[in-house]
Write a structure and sequence with these properties.
eight-stranded mixed β-sheet, 8 helices, about 25% helix, about 375 residues, Immunoglobulin-like, 2 domains, ten-stranded antiparallel β-sheet, alpha+beta, Rossmann fold
Length: about 375
Amino acid sequence: MNLKTITIALAAALLCGFSYGQSDTQGVKEDFKPSPLNQPGQEYPQVNSQGYARFRIKAPQADSIRVSLGLGGQGGTRLSKGADGFFTGTTSGPMDEGFHYYHLTIDGGVFNDPGALNFYGSTRWESGIEIPAKDQDFYALKEVPHGNVQQILFPSKSTNTSRRAFVYTPPGYRKSSKRYPVLYLQHGWGEDETAWSNQGRANLIIDNLIAENKIKPFIIVMTYGMTNETRWGRMRDFKIDGFQTVLTEELIPYVDANFQTVANRNNRAMAGLSMGGMETHTITLNKPDLFGYYALLSGGTFNPGELKDKTKPRLIFLSCGSKERPEGVRNAVNSLKEAGYNAVSYVSEGTAHEFLTWRRSLRELAPLLFN
């Protein structure tokens, strides 16, 4: 899959899974509860058991408010103004389960919802809403041993600055001299190094899998994947060279020098969602001796031809949501298997280009790593 195809596929996928317009309330259950991602003490936004979302904004001087849901804020749910100065409205249909970005357009200006927590996406801090998923237990905060997510600043001569990364270390890290494999995990376009721990719940997913003895503990490194800022719709302008240098020549050596890692390709993996999958695809092909495990989460595919005559990966993992292009993922994995590669596909049922797809993908990927 080339860059143009990936860009078109991502743009289409971003429009999936959201319902727009003012709701016809017939058939909507009135069992709404505050979203799990609300600011402390805030009653709205709310979600019900069917997956509808309801918003209520106080803006007595405003004439119109629209709620735009999803990465990039496509479409909109128009809110109705009451005599008390509150605008209220419900999505026209149920939303996909899991996390979604959104923002408000008030009389033409873009604002965040004061009732919701903010998350970095669409190259800005956006409001977030969580539609509880039936399988949310795997990323829930539980009474199990927890690892640590810490911020690091590492020197980058190529960009003439210090750059930031977040590093997850598993429960029990530093209590012994044990050394750990490392997964380098990349965010999507418009997001940053906070995405996988905040929106993706990566640390909780791994904590829970370790507690269930389903995976071998490993370190996760999450860093900002852009060295040349690129606007949505201009992905053709993105150049991998700068970030590849940061990752492979600066960050990896820093992590290996400062953390208890097993510093070889058989104990090093790279994965990414969406644009981060595109980065993973390119860098693993360019640097096959650095990484033993490749994973693209809604981020394109590999084919046997581009892997030929390169150091063979121990695993290739490809995933997407069932509302994306699952046949492309499945067909690619079948071709890789026929060519003798250890390849695995995963399709998240009922989801599109969104974080429940990627949370589930990480859950499926983790047990396959470093075995």
